[in-house]
Structures are given as structure tokens and as C-alpha cells.
Amino acid sequence: MAEMHFSAATAAFQIEGARSADGRGRSMWDDFVDTPGNIIDGSTAEPGPDSYHRFDDDIAMLADLGVDRYRFSISWTRVIPNAGTDASVNSAGLDYYDRLVDGLLAAGIAPEPTLYHWDLPVALEANGGWLNRDTAHRFGDYTQVVAGRLGDRVRHWYTINEPASTSLQGYALGELAPGRTLLFDSLPTVHHQLLAHGIAAPILREHGAVQAAPTLNHSLVLPASESADDHAAADLLDAIHNRLFTDPLLTGQYPDLSPFGVELPVADGDMDLISAPNEVYGFNYYNPTTVRASTGPVPFEMVPTPGAPVTGFGPMWPIRPDTMRDFLIDMGRRYGSALPPIIITENGASFPEPDTTDTEIIDSERIDYLRDHLGAVSEAKAAGVRIDGYTVWSLLDNFEWAEGWSQRFGLVHVDMNTGTRTLKASFRWYRDLISAVRP
After folding, report:
1. Of the residues 83, 95, 128, 239, which has the maximum number of CB atoms within 10 A of its CB?
2. Which of the residues are catalytic?
3. Beta partners for 9?
């Protein structure tokens, strides 16, 4: 573990608050949140942690935690508020990220911005969103603006976060923004997000980046039984949740999509951009997925994983750290020398906790989860997989997308009405671990 760097992560929409401050525009998540019935507890992202105004508090906690890096995201709509209709840059939004980057560097913490963590400007979504190839090029314009302002100080970047969630939950099933239910007709959004990465990465490197990679969320897919049908269903979900993203990045080819009746809109030169080597592989992992065959329009159905304890999300978020180990080892075997060093860019768990607290929360279940998944990382490393970093999701309790304030992932408890921060036992545990493994 000593040779790895340690980090914690957040995302702009989930922690910044200040939705209307300093000229920020609207994203598709603003529209999704403002639509009645979309958020399970009826909450909005305001004020929440209010990190836009309290980022100094966050930096102080990161310094206390002892992390080497901090992964946060930049809000596209703070930088170019009306992207899609007006390319004007909002200097006040960039000034905020200037202050955040400078504060991190002054504290000895390397900033790791993510350029896209789901907050697509509304005008771009109205014009087709990630179904429209032009969105990838507008992302390149946005990247140029941000890199031009921050590239003199920021060396480690992530481009697109969890494109699988955007494509499958946002455009296919309607569970996340933009709330479309296109099923497999959503899959062109995969190509356009990967193309956006391919366009953005060389721009970042031109501005001095030593790391420019996407972060991919993966899940080991398990068949519900040994039947041939369940195994086939697991293979299909693995293809569109995992290999649909990893294969083009590492091999320059998409897996066979003929079972889904979809042909991706690949133009000449696209795959060269998408498969250009990256310095690292951003790897997000939370849980495995168990599926059985289905006769509906989707040929698989997710079911609880037998015998596994679960997080606060219930039976569809089982705790099986061995599956993280197995997935990492399989990646090493499958892709060999094409696989760059892996950075665990998200790993964490939500458990029920009170909305307010006057004392430290003893979140033993989270500590167990993190300890056991770090053990899985160590086992994968021992099997020959190069893993250079580990990132906890999340530094703070935050707005958990369609779950609102009902799920808490943080090492730090946040009172969502006052912004009051209270360290949890898991914060102390992670701090002690980092201190112990440092040379």
C-alpha cells in the first residue's frame, strides 16, 4: 500500500450548492431535480454542504485527513452557463475553481478535477444531449477554456465520469437525468461520451497534463444460477456495462452489439481518438450485480445477490469485496500490456445515519467496507495488477442524485440544512491508515 497515493472524491452538483451564484447556468440535473417525483425524498441540492462558499473548510479537512490528492468536479454550467446557445465564458465561475485549486496546492494536496460529472448544460440536452455528436465537440470547447485557466497548476485530470451510468440509467432507463427511457437506442450516447474524452485528453496534455483519463464504473456480473440462460444474460449485461467502455479504450474496438440491434455512430478517426493510450485507468467500484434471464424487452433482470450483506441502498447494493478483486485480476488478464496503471477513483458505501448529530458517528459498517475493499485491492496487486491509487467516495455526505439526501456516503457528516460538518469514525480510520502506510 505504501506505493499508492490516497485520495477522497466529491462532485460539483452534489456538494457545491449555490445553484444561482455568480452566473451559474442550468444543467440537466437541475431540470431533473425540479421535476416532481424524480427525487425519492423530494429534496434538492440546496444548500447541502454548500462547498461553493465553504471550500476552505473542505480543504482543512482534507489536510487533516492526510490525502495526497483530492478528486472534485468542475461544473460545466459554472464555466459556460449557456453552452449550446451561447459560448460566453463566466469568469466568476472560473474564479471559484482558481481559488479551490490554489487552496489545495497551498495545503500540499494535488488537485484532480473531473471535467464532466453528469451536469450537462440544458441547451445541449435540449439539442439531443449525448445522443448528438456535436455535444462531444462542445465538450472540447469547454475543456479548452478550463485547461487554459487551470492548466498551469493542475497536472492530474479526469475527463468523463461514469459514462455507463449516464447512458444506461440516464438515457436507457430514466432513473437519472435526463430521464429518458430509450432502452438500447440509448447506446449511441456511449460513443459520444468516449469521443468527448478522446477530444479532451490531448487538449489537457497540450496544457501540461501528465494524466488525462476517464473514470469508468464497473461491476462484476454474476449469473443467478448455473443455467445457460442466466449465464447468457450475465454475458449480455457485462458487454454493455463493462466491455462496451473498456474494449474501445484499450483495444480500439467495441464488443459485438448485434444482440441489442444497435450500430454505434462511429466516424472515421473516432476509434483512434478513443483508444489513444491514457496514463492511467480510472476505476470506480461499489458492488457486483446478479442477473437472471428475462423474456422482456431487456433480456436480463437484476436480482439480489444471495448471501451478501447490503449497504443502505438495500438488496441491489450487495457487499462482496472479493468481486472487486476478481474484476481487477480479470482486467489484467484480459487486456495485458494495453491496461495502464489503475487508480481506484471511487469506492465507498452508504449506510443509514441521522440527519443531524452533535457527536461523532461511529460508522463501523463503513470502516469494515473500506477495509475489506482495500484488502481486495492488495490481493489484486499481489496477483500482478498495477494499482497506483485509491480514492474514497466520498469526503462529504452529499446529494445522492435521485436518492436525494436519503443516502450518506461521507467520511464527514453534513447537516444538509446548516452545512455543519462533523467527522465520522471512518474519517479517523482512513487518516490513521494513510499515516501508517506512508514511508
Report:
1. 83
2. 346
3. 71, 393
Q: Are 412 and 421 in contact (CB under 8 A)?
A: yes
Q: Whole-angstrom distance between the N-terminal and C-terminal Cα of the chain?
A: 10
Ordered DSSP codes for 263-290: ---PPTTHHHHHTS--S-EEEEE---EE
Residue 20: which of 87, 123, 93, 85 has the closest Cα? 93
Nearest to 209 by CA among 131, 285, 143: 143
DSSP 172: I
* Helix or strand (DSSP H, E) at 203: helix 188-206
Q: 338 φ, ψ to 5°?
A: -75, -15
pLDDT in tens, the chain (439 residues): 668 999 999 999 999 998 888 899 999 999 999 999 999 999 999 999 999 999 999 999 999 999 999 999 999 999 999 999 999 999 999 999 999 999 999 999 999 999 999 999 999 999 999 999 999 999 999 999 999 999 999 999 999 999 999 999 999 999 999 999 999 999 999 999 999 999 999 999 999 999 999 999 999 999 999 999 999 999 999 999 999 999 999 999 999 999 999 999 999 999 999 999 999 999 999 999 999 999 989 999 999 999 999 999 999 999 999 999 999 999 999 999 999 999 999 999 999 999 999 999 999 999 999 999 999 999 999 999 999 999 999 999 999 999 999 999 999 999 999 999 999 999 999 999 999 998 7
**Angle at the Cα of 261 from the Cα atoms of 257 and 263, rounded to 5 degrees:** 60
Query: How many degrees, rounded to 5, is the angle at CA 256 between CA 245 and CA 299?
Result: 90
For the chain, what's the residue count? 439
Fold of 5-437: TIM Barrel (3.20.20)
Task: Tell me the whole-structure pTM to 2 decimals.
Answer: 0.98
Nearest to 410 by CA among 129, 108, 58: 58
Own/partner contacts of 98-107, CB < 8 Å, gap of 24 or more, are 98/149, 98/150, 99/55, 100/55, 100/59, 100/72, 101/150, 101/153, 101/154, 102/153, 103/55, 103/56, 103/59, 104/59, 104/62, 104/70, 105/153, 107/59, 107/60, 107/62, 107/63
